[in-house]
Design a protein that fits this description.
single chain, 21% strand, 19 strands, 5-stranded mixed barrel, 6-stranded parallel β-sheet, Rossmann fold, globular, Transcription Regulator spoIIAA, alpha/beta
């Protein structure tokens, strides 16, 4: 894909701003005060996309609400990674038939990864007639024009054609209040893991210009954000399409030069593209958190091959051992899939033994969920759900014991945390995160929110630490 075909021209973005203004004037002429509800499912990239949608909506004159019943426009920003998330979306769409009956002028929109799947958009068209607008991730930058078409024609609009992905700079963003922010540094995926639908719905990898990323991070630091996460389907591939000899470790080095009190995190990181240089840069950077999320998915080489992960168990272990060596105290997390099609109990136990050998601080664990359209969905899968559940329970037993032991070792220690919110525990009313992203519930005054503070750890469990601000 030619780089010139990736960047959305300035005149096309100006055209979208014209549509934003048309919609704003339309509501002003009606003396209306429209409200919009954006409900986002799935990963942090979806959260970042949702913040762009909210930014454009505010430019159009909408105020934002979390209540679909009072909204004139409802947007479901969807995830296609697992069946459970998909079923939740269809359930919510069913509920919205009632809000539409109460307010026939309400516009309902489905966007995100699910919308880009042909079988989903077809189902929406045939069975969910109350949905007015459907568009995929590639069409997000055209949202004002698509919404104007709905208002102007009073017809349903679908923009889910198979088009290459783009990069649109300068879209307004509404960020969450607080200290955390997301920065997309690239979009799409070239990996085609056999279980994953993402490359089919988000297109090929395309990296943002380094100067655009640096400018956004600089603005966030100056605005007071202190925990900034760089996002991409595979951040380790950043820059491969730029053809300027500039890659992810170079970006981290340049971000680290931005003055201020803040932490940089990143996800997701693919082992096949992780390098010693990346870990060396992390080790010497003062702002890059010593935390690494490196999804392994399986500890068995045959299963890894069938997953099309393009590394072996030994190669993964080499990477994590080097990372731990240059970053003592590194907090290491990962993703695991149990019950991949054709996986045996012995192969699943290879994954459990890898977890024991590595000593992950935490895991995101899943029983395999077939995604129509992927290679894995067509593979024979003789293991029963009950068998897979047994393997999964063993994995959780091992990891939960490890997490509890790691947390217990913190009791009596003093750690530096960023206080980033309130807790639902009345005894420990504040929520905070260590540099390694461990959750710490703590005693202290709300005036500490948004600050880095030292905390004495007084207790722990499998999922959290407890302490008092010093």
């Amino acid at each position: 894909m030619e780089r010139k075909d990736v960047l959305v021209p300035a005149e096309d973005l100006a055209r979208q701003r014209d549509f934003q203004e048309k919609i704003r004037r339309m509501f002003e002429a009606r003396q209306a005060h429209p409200r919009a509800c954006v409900d986002t499912f799935g990963c942090q990239q979806n959260v970042a996309d949702g913040q762009k949608l909210m930014g454009m909506l505010q430019e159009m004159g909408f105020t934002l609400t979390e209540d679909a019943k009072e909204a004139d426009l409802v947007i479901l920003n969807t995830c296609a990674i697992r069946e459970h998330a998909e079923q939740r979306v269809f359930g919510n769409l069913g509920i919205l038939t009632h809000t539409k009956k109460e307010n026939p002028e309400q516009v309902i929109c489905l966007c995100g990864c699910m919308a880009q799947e042909e079988r989903v958009s077809k189902r929406i068209k045939e069975s969910y007639r109350h949905v007015d607008l459907v568009f995929g991730p590639q069409a997000l930058w055209k949202f004002p024009e698509l919404l104007w078409e709905v208002y102007e024609t009073h017809k349903r609009v679908f923009s889910v054609q198979d088009e290459h992905g783009t990069i649109a700079e300068g879209i307004p963003v509404v960020r969450e209040k607080g200290v955390k922010a997301w920065v997309s540094i690239m979009y799409g995926c070239n990996n085609f893991c056999s279980y994953c639908i993402v490359p089919y719905v988000r297109g090929r990898e395309r990296s943002r210009d380094p100067q655009a990323v640096l400018a956004e991070v600089r603005e966030l630091v100056e605005a007071g954000y202190k925990d900034i996460t760089l996002l991409g389907q595979n951040v380790n591939s950043y820059g491969n399409d730029l053809d300027i000899g500039y890659h992810f470790p170079d970006l981290l080095e340049d971000i680290d030069k931005i003055p201020g009190e803040y932490l940089i995190r990143f996800m997701s990181s693919h082992p096949k593209d992780a390098t010693y240089r990346l870990f060396d840069v992390m080790a010497k950077s003062s702002h890059v958190a010593k935390q690494l999320h490196l999804p392994v998915q399986s500890g068995n080489d045959r299963v890894l091959h069938e997953m099309n992960r393009r590394y072996t168990r030994a190669q993964y272990l080499d990477l994590v051992n080097y990372a731990k060596r240059v970053m003592p105290g590194l907090v290491l997390t990962s993703d695991i899939i149990i019950g991949f099609p054709g996986e045996t109990e012995a192969e699943a136990m290879d994954t459990v033994s890898l977890v024991e050998e590595v000593g992950f601080d935490a895991l995101f664990t899943f029983i395999y969920s077939p995604r129509p359209g992927t290679k894995a969905a067509a593979m024979p899968d003789p293991a029963t759900r009950e068998e897979k559940q047994k393997w999964f329970d063993k994995l959780l037993e091992v990891q939960n014991a490890k997490s509890a032991a790691l947390h217990a070792a913190y009791v009596g220690e003093t750690v530096r945390v960023l206080v980033d919110g309130e807790s639902d525990d009345p005894e420990f009313p504040l929520a905070s995160r260590t540099e390694g992203n461990r959750l710490v519930r703590l005693k202290g005054d709300k005036s500490l929110m948004g600050k880095f503070v030292d905390v004495k750890i007084t207790g722990s469990n499998t999922w959290a630490l407890y302490g008092e601000a010093i």
